[in-house]
Amino acid sequence: TTSTQSADSAATDEQDHSESGDLEFVIAYTCKHLNDREAKWSTTEKEAYAIIHSVDVFRTYLYGRKFTVFTDHQPLEWLMRKSEPAGRLARWASKLQEFDIVIGNRPGKSHQNADTLSRIPILPIAKVESKTEPQINNLEKEWTELQHEDNYCRRIIENLKKIKNGNKKGNINGYKLNEKQELIDRYGRIVVPIVKIREIMEENHDHILAGHLGITKSLARLQRQYSWPNMRSDVMAYVNSCLKCARRKAFGTSEAPLQPLPPVNRIWERIAMDVVGRIQESVKGYKYILVLSDYVS
């Protein structure tokens, strides 16, 4: 498990004690974004919460067997040994008593399987690609040229120049030119010319790493770096017209009414089963998991 300023993450592994050595194979990952209140907790509390979150998610794997939780935060090793914990740490320590758990320490450099999930970049996907210096210069030149050609941006730039030359008084709602002569708003977000709007939305919604997020999350991602008039309505129209998003949504689904089942009195009187898969093929060629659950035990 691990934690950062804004997220907790964990991975559950199994070890292969074969002739090739002790190898770890990932079974599943989990990650949780911290809300504003949780983000203000101390580092120890956030790292402890990562353990609580992981045992909750992986309870079906962990309950009833001895396991080790590795964390890159060494002070947590005393969480189960502390004689008089207080506050939320006491509640969490009490919750962990139902598990046969050992808390171990693993340095961060050897903890990348869980650490990576808590460090997903929050900047727009459009900035992921690396570019050479000539390419960057061309992109900056393209932005300034397109802004000067755009009617909305050009009017603001012309007014800014008049104010700078003393021909006009006042300000333009906080707009200004940065060191690259690009038009930005009061929050430092670049003002997008109308011809670039669709391209920007494609990069931040359709990109393979963008995840085809919904309207609210797509809008929040764009607003972190970009600005243009009627952005909300443009994003709503774009997301609602996305064919992949429309195919993924379930329309007109109905659920069968729940029927109460009579209680059972002994083990194996009634069981439930389901097949999980298709999953990533294991080293032994398995692709599915048959899950059986007894109603009593």
Automatic annotation (TrEMBL):
SUPFAM superfamilies: DNA/RNA polymerases
Annotated ranges, domain Integrase zinc-binding: 193-250
InterPro entries: DNA/RNA_pol_sf (IPR043502), Integrase_H2C2 (IPR041588), Retrovirus_Pol_polyprotein (IPR050951), RT_RNaseH (IPR041373)
An example Gene Ontology molecular-function term: RNA-directed DNA polymerase activity
Record domain Reverse transcriptase RNase H-like: where: 20-99
Highest taxon listed in the record's lineage: Eukaryota
EC nos: 2.7.7.49
This protein's UniProt keywords: Endonuclease, Hydrolase, Nuclease, Nucleotidyltransferase, RNA-directed DNA polymerase, Transferase
EC main group: transferase
Protein name as catalogued: RNA-directed DNA polymerase
UniProt organism field: Daphnia magna
